[in-house]
Every structure is written in structure tokens, then in C-alpha cells.
Specification:
The complex is a heterodimer of chains A (299) and B (321). Chain A has one domain: MetI-like fold (Orthogonal Bundle), CATH 1.10.3720.10. Chain A contains 14 helices and no strands. The two termini of chain A are 24 Å apart. Chain B is mainly α and 321 residues long. Chain B has one domain: Orthogonal Bundle (MetI-like fold). In chain B, 77% of the residues lie in helices and 0% in strands. Chain B has twelve helices and no strands. The chains are: A mainly alpha (299), B mainly alpha (321).
């Protein structure tokens, strides 16, 4: 995503100095925590991609004879209450958690960018309509709203899940984008672009969005971390991705039985740690990006 | 300022109206209607069902139904629960609401009592050992899903050490007076700390940043230059200014806590609004779902209003016109 935008920023720079994005990239790579975050995420993504090679069992296959087994050579982390292999579920769980986090973030970003652009660019009635809607969304406790919508719908698939999340999380990114746009509206080069007859769409895409790229990337990253936590929370209380699809959240659910909680920590601690590690890594990246894009710390 | 407050209150009214419309719309979008449970029952003849629908006003036009609902809600009547037959929604909600309030206030107290002193210390001695530990804690606190933190807390403090109970709000019925209070408190500790974990992490960092920012401003230099002691500069000049945005944000935080309470309550089997809400979602008990959504949304709306008014009162530098 970032690579394509590089050209836009570069082309707005007449002399051959480093583009703001290149400067940001250099600052980012100097941040050790952020680089550690990138490494962790690369490992997580590899686990998700190579899950079929890493897991020796079908994560959905129950085996009612071998339920809640202790770890063994056959089942490295034992089996869950339906006899499914915990290690395979842990490995496959990364797919669901990362995919949902990523696509929910993309979808939310898309809605947020479109609404934020409209709001900040046109102002007036469009703006107040979108902003009131955003205020309204922010008033409802997020989790309750998501759960209510889920109770209304009959079945929750991954696609529906992502849509519900996106339709309830857009206000933050919309507000940020709107704020950036409003601060740019009266800039001379925007008036210039308008006077030579640029279309609204061209002004938004070519002149506004590249200026907002920093806050967008930073917030999208942090949002992805939040969305992974939300997904795991919903799966944990049984309203996320339904069984037998493994997710880290619904693996931890096993610990709601006192027996698993106290006697089988190997069943619920690894998926919990996996969520923690992923979110931690993404937050490191997010923080690194924020510092990197912060113009106050220019090199 | 009064003009600002008046305007802010006037903005509150249409929002309140919209909140009720959204809640009502959500309930209308739900499949079936409050009678759906009985439609499946083949013993009830269609005419009787139709009569009851008519009697309940389910055949009225939507705006009329909305108005009827709104006027009963305004006097605290949320109708009957569809799942717990014979119990009114307000009865169910009032039996739980205090527990959730205790839990959220406890979590808020944890946030304030932990985040503010550590935030102050971190900014007083940045890059010290404690500052680094606080940063580490903040990163971990933000990355740990609260159900996982809750389970770990139960595993160690309840199961291994046996210090605190892991379920419910009271251990035995016969307790009175001081013993009852202590028992309630012991039940609040684990869920309260778990619920407050993320916000503690956020505000600790936030206060540190804010303090460092204020310390760099001109009036602090002036205060130092005129010979004020370090304590006076820190507490009277820096802290007071750094706390303004934080106290306002804490007003909004209450809503986040109420939302987070759903998951925390589920782990601790804590009989609050969160567990009631989850049960109602499971049982498709729409009147209860609507009532809880509405109550929490209105609470947050009022909280935001109070936070904005508070901000206008404590920070005279901001002029609204």
C-alpha cells in the first residue's frame, strides 16, 4: 500500500531530495522496537501461510475418544474438549486472526477514507451529516452494538463479521481524515489546482490524500491491533467466528471451564500469548510509524 | 461560557432523539417479533395470536409503535422480558445495574490511582528504571485482551494463591454490615483490576506525555525563574495543567469501561448488566437488549456532555463563541 503512494509524494517534490516518505522510512528502520515488531509479524504471517505444513492434524477434526489430553508426542499442546489438536488449532488460528484483523482494517479504512474525504472536502451539509452520524456511532458502546447486530442476523460468516466491524468502527479514521482535509482546504496549492480546472476527485486523490498518508497509515496500524483484540474477544464469548473454525479467541474459550483453566494451561495460554504477541508487535510498528511520520522529529 | 454550555445542552437533545431512533430501529430489524417464540407453538390458534398481536400494538404503524415505546421508556417502563416470563425489563436491569456501576467505578478508581502517580513519576524522572518499567507495563497492558488478563488473574490469584474469589459478587448470603462490604470488595478486586488494565496503561502514558509537554512551556520557565520550589512547580503548575485534558478524557472513558465490562463480567460470572446483556443476546430477548443499549448510550451521552461542560469550566483559556 505504501509503495504505490511513494511515487505520488515524490512527484510533488521538484528537486531530487529525499521524499518525506523516504525520510520517514529511514527514521522507522532506526527504531529497534518497530523493527522487532516487523520481524514478529513476518513470523506470524509465515506461520499462517505455511499452516498446512506446520500442523500435523486437521484443526477441525474432533476425536471424542481423546478429549482434553495432556501434551504428548502426537498432540504437542494436548487436545481440546472436542478432541481437536491444540497445536494445529493454534497454527491455523493465526490465519483467521490475521485475515480478519487485516481485512476488517482495510474495509474500515475504505469507509473512513471515503466519508472523511467527502466530509473534509465538501464541508457544509455533507460534513455535518457525516459528522453527526459519526458522533452517533461513537455514543453506542462498540461491543454492545456489534453484539446487537449479530443477534439480529441469523448466521455470522467471516465476511459478515468483517462488514459489521467495519460499519461500526469507521468514525475514528473518518474524523482524523476530515481534520487533515480541513487544515489543507485553504492552502494556496489547492486553490491553484482548482483554478487550473482539476476535478474534485483528482484534487482529493492527488493533493489531499498524500498529505494525510502519515496519519492514515499510523491509525490503520493501531486499528488493526484493536480489531484483532476485538475479534478475539468476540470469539472468546462465543459471538465471533463459530466453531469448528479455529481462532485464537475461541481457543481461549476452553478456559471458561474450571478444569481446563486450572489443569490444562497449555490449552489456553499459548493462544492468549499469540494474541498478545501479535498485538504487541503491531503496536510497536504503529508507534514506530507515528514517530517516523512526526515532522517534529525531522532529521 | 454559559452560551457554550447552553449550546452544548441544546445539541444533546437531538442526539438523544437519534439514539432512541437507532435503538428502536435495531429492534425492529430483528427477525420475527416479540411473539415469535409463540408462533412456533402449534397449539396456539392463529386467531388468538392475531388478537394478542393486536392487543400488544404490534399491528400499529411503526411511528405509532415507536411513540408508544418512547413514552413508556420515558417513565422507565421497558416492557416485559421475553425470556424470563413474568419479569419486567426494568426489574431485571435494576437488579444488575448497581453491580456494573460498582465494577466500572472500581476500574476507574484503579485507573486514576495507578496511572496518575506513575505518570507523574515517569515525567519527573524520564528514562529512569521506573519509567522504563511503566512503559513496558503500558505496552503489555494495551496488548493483552482483557479476557486473557482475567484468566491469568484467576489462575494465579484465585487458584494458585487463593487470595481472591473468582466468581460472582458475594460468597455467602448471611453476611451483614462491614463483613458484607469487605466480601463485596474482595469480589471486585480481580474483575476491577482486569477491567482497568487497558485504561491504566493508556492514561499513564498520556499523563507522562502531557506533563513533559507542559514542562517545556514558557510559564513553567517563568515559575522556575521567579524562584518557586520544584514541588510547587511540579504539582501546582505542571500537574494541574496536564490533568485538564486527562480528566475530560476520563469522562469518555466511562463508556469504554461499560463496554469492556461485558467481557470481563462474562469471565468472572459477575452478575452485572454485561452478563445480562450476553444472556439476552443468546436468548434473543430483544426488549432487554434494547433497554441496555439505550441505558448505556444515554449514560455515555450524558457523560460526554458533563465532560465538555467540565472542560469549559476548568480551562478558562478556551473561549467558545
Amino acid at each position: 500500500m505504501g509503495i504505490r503512494k511513494t511515487e505520488d509524494v515524490k512527484s510533488s517534490q521538484p528537486e531530487k531530495s529525499k521524499s518525506p516518505l523516504q525520510l520517514a522510512m529511514r527514521r522507522f528502520l532506526r527504531n529497534r522496537l518497530a523493527v522487532a515488531g516487523i520481524v514478529i509479524i513476518i513470523i506470524m504471517v509465515s506461520i499462517a501461510v505455511f499452516a498446512p505444513l506446520l500442523a500435523q492434524h486437521d484443526p477441525r477434526q474432533s476425536d471424542l475418544i481423546n478429549v482434553m489430553q495432556k501434551p504428548s508426542g502426537e498432540n504437542w499442546l494436548g487436545t481440546d474438549s472436542s478432541g481437536r489438536d491444540n497445536f494445529s488449532r493454534l497454527v491455523y488460528g493465526s490465519q483467521v486472526s490475521l485475515l480478519i484483523g487485516f481485512f476488517a482494517m482495510l474495509f474500515t479504512l475504505a469507509i473512513g477514507v471515503v466519508l472523511g474525504s467527502l466530509s473534509g472536502f465538501y464541508g457544509g451539509k455533507v460534513d455535518s451529516l457525516i459528522m453527526r452520524a459519526a458522533d452517533l456511532m461513537l455514543i453506542f458502546p462498540f461491543l454492545l452494538l456489534v453484539l446487537t447486530v449479530m443477534a439480529i442476523l441469523d448466521r455470522v460468516t467471516i465476511g459478515i463479521f468483517i462488514t459489521i466491524i467495519a460499519l461500526t468502527t469507521w468514525p475514528n479514521i473518518t474524523r482524523i481524515l476530515r481534520g487533515t482535509f480541513l487544515s489543507l482546504r485553504e492552502k494556496e496549492y489547492i486553490i491553484g489546482a482548482r483554478s487550473i480546472g482539476c476535478s474534485d476527485l483528482r484534487i482529493i486523490v492527488k493533493h489531499f490524500l498524500p498529505n494525510a498518508i502519515g496519519p492514515i497509515i499510523v491509525n490503520a496500524t493501531i486499528m488493526m491491533a484493536t480489531l484483532i483484540i476485538i475479534e478475539s474477544g468476540l470469539s472468546f464469548i462465543g459471538f465471533g467466528i463459530p466453531q469448528p473454525t479455529p481462532t485464537w479467541g475461541n481457543m481461549v474459550t476452553e478456559a471458561r471451564s474450571l478444569r481446563v483453566l486450572t489443569q490444562h494451561p497449555e490449552a489456553w495460554v499459548p493462544p492468549g500469548l499469540a494474541i498478545l504477541l501479535t498485538v504487541l508487535a503491531i503496536n510497536f510498528i504503529g508507534d514506530g510509524l507515528r514517530d517516523a511520520f512526526d515532522t517534529k522529529s525531522n532529521m | 461560557m454559559y452560551k457554550y454550555i447552553t449550546r452544548r445542552v441544546l445539541q444533546f437533545i437531538p442526539m438523544l432523539f437519534l439514539v432512541t431512533v437507532v435503538v428502536y430501529g435495531l429492534a425492529q430489524a430483528a427477525p420475527g417479533d416479540p411473539m415469535s417464540g409463540e408462533i412456533l407453538d402449534p397449539d396456539i390458534p392463529a386467531e388468538v395470536l392475531e388478537e394478542r398481536r393486536e392487543a400488544l400494538g404490534l399491528n400499529d404503524p411503526i411511528p405509532v409503535q415507536y411513540w408508544n415505546w418512547l413514552s413508556s421508556v420515558a417513565v422507565g417502563d421497558f416492557g416485559q422480558s421475553m425470556h424470563y416470563t413474568g419479569r419486567s425489563v426494568s426489574e431485571l436491569v435494576t437488579s444488575r445495574i448497581m453491580n456494573t456501576l460498582y465494577l466500572s467505578l472500581f476500574a476507574l478508581a484503579v485507573t486514576i490511582l495507578v496511572a496518575i502517580p506513575i505518570g507523574i513519576y515517569s515525567s519527573k524522572k524520564p528514562y529512569s528504571l521506573l519509567d522504563y518499567s511503566a512503559t513496558t507495563f503500558a505496552f503489555l497492558g494495551l496488548a493483552t485482551p482483557n479476557f486473557f488478563a482475567a484468566l491469568i488473574a484467576i489462575y494465579f490469584f484465585s487458584f494458585q494463591l487463593g487470595w481472591f474469589p473468582s466468581q460472582g459478587t458475594v460468597s455467602s448470603v448471611g453476611l451483614t454490615g462491614f463483613e458484607y462490604f469487605i466480601d463485596k470488595l474482595r469480589h471486585l478486586i480481580l474483575p476491577g483490576f482486569t477491567l482497568g488494565l487497558a485504561s491504566t496503561a493508556i492514561y499513564m502514558r498520556y499523563l507522562r506525555t502531557e506533563m513533559l509537554e507542559v514542562m517545556g512551556s514558557d510559564f513553567i520557565r517563568t515559575a522556575r525563574a521567579k524562584g518557586l520550589g520544584p514541588g510547587s512547580v511540579l504539582y501546582k503548575h505542571t500537574l494541574r495543567n496536564a490533568l485538564i485534558p486527562i480528566i475530560t478524557l476520563l469522562g469518555f472513558e466511562f463508556g469504554t469501561l461499560l463496554s469492556g465490562a461485558v467481557i470481563t463480567e462474562a469471565v468472572f460470572n459477575y452478575p452485572g448488566l454485561g452478563t445480562l446483556f450476553l444472556n439476552s443476546i443468546q436468548n434473543r430477548d430483544y426488549p432487554v437488549i434494547m433497554a441496555i443499549n439505550l441505558i448505556l448510550a444515554v449514560t455515555i451521552l450524558v457523560g460526554n456532555l458533563l465532560a465538555d461542560i467540565f472542560y469549559a469550566i476548568v480551562d478558562p483559556r478556551i473561549r467558545y463563541d
